[in-house]
Amino acid sequence: MKPERVQPVHLKPDHSAGWRRFAVVMLLALAAGGAGFWWYVLPTPVAYHEVRLRMMSLEINGPGLLDAINRVVVTSRIQGFLKAIEADRNDSVKRGQVLARLESVDLQNQLAAAQAEASAAGRMVTEAQADRARAQAVLDKTKIEYERRVTLVRLNAASQAELTTTEAAFKQAEADMARSEAGIERARAQVLSQEANVKVLEARLGEATISAPLDGVVISRERNPGDLLLPGANLMQVVELSSIIISARFDESARATIKAGQPARVTFAADPGRVWNGRVLRLSRQVDQETREFTADITLDSLPDSWAMGQRANVAVEAQSPEQVIGIPESLVMRRDGRAGVWLAQRGRASWTPVTLGYISGSNVVVTRGLKEGDVVLAPAGRYAFQPVSLGTRLP
Q: Which Pfam families match (predicted)?
């Protein structure tokens, strides 16, 4: 039996698969072209900000401490043991109010003795005046007798010896009168001396009572009854509430920018979530040679309930730039590799440009280098190099 002959089968080429591949390639090419057209040809409306020179408000920050202009250290001018203390920490006091008393028995006794001596000196003046009156009477009598003897000698009714005796008595009376006058002056000087001594002791006795030098609040007390208080030793400190300030420190570069009367905001480390309003009162005329900082006194519209001397605070002074500057919204700044920059609209396309930033003013930031007036800064979200853009919403 002969085997069957197998006839070869001839397959026709399938051109449909090639067309499908071609169609896919064309679609991809069209998609790529469309994407390229959309990305690099079709402009995208973008929000923008037009750069211009302007005066900007500055927020200059610096650390500060709670202090007071009228802050008095109460001391004693005399030495003595503390008998009583009439005021304690946190007490409100009025000017002239008694704060403390010193033991003063010795001073009282000295004053009584001085007053007695002054009284005795006054009586000595009276005695000296009586002595002068007696001397005056003797002088008047001897003068008359002397003048009579002179006349008698001229008439040869009296001898020269009698005249000499009368003249000597008259001169003695004159000397007694001069001594009486000197005694009165000496007694009066003694009175003045004793009266001055009385006043000194009265003043010292008054200093044994220590009074408040001003209206304020006692912020510290360093001594207790029974302690020996030496002249100049710290007894307590009193602060006038109306003179409480924040002593803030700023870099010397801000010296020409910060001025008296500018508003300021203060936050305390003890309550950082609350802001206290105030104003710049005055600036110091001295810059620290090491830190290159100067101080400014800031007054507060009101004080925190928990205020304390030396309390830390942060001060932000709202000032004006000394000249026109370029400032843009801080939200328009983006960073590449740690460097700040902005997207600019240049010839209808987005171009990233590095910039140098200065201080922050609210929601704006000063640009010191990289921009000029008239530049158009684009919103940075979604931007890429050479993106075709059109100007959309204008940002303030």
A: Beta-barrel_RND_2, HH_MFP_RND
| % of the chain beyond a pLDDT of 70 | 90
Whether the predicted pLDDT of 111 surpasses 80: yes
Do 78 and 224 contact (CB within 8 A), yes or no? no
Place of tokens 């002054």: 118
Q: Distance between CA 322 and CA 315 in Å, rounded?
A: 20
Separation CA 394–CA 10 (nearest Å):
72
Asked if pLDDT for residue 11 goes beyond 50, the answer is no
DSSP 68-103: ESSEEEE-BSS-EEEEEE---TT-EE-TT-EEEEE-
DSSP character string of 222-256: ---TTPEEPBT---EEEE-GGGEEEEEEEEGGGTT
Contact, 173 vs 83, CB < 8 A? no
Contacts of 21 (CB under 8 A, 6+ apart): none
Tell me if 245 sits within 8 A of 267, measured CB to CB: no
What is the spatial distance between Cα 382 and Cα 389, in angstroms, rounded to a whole number? 12
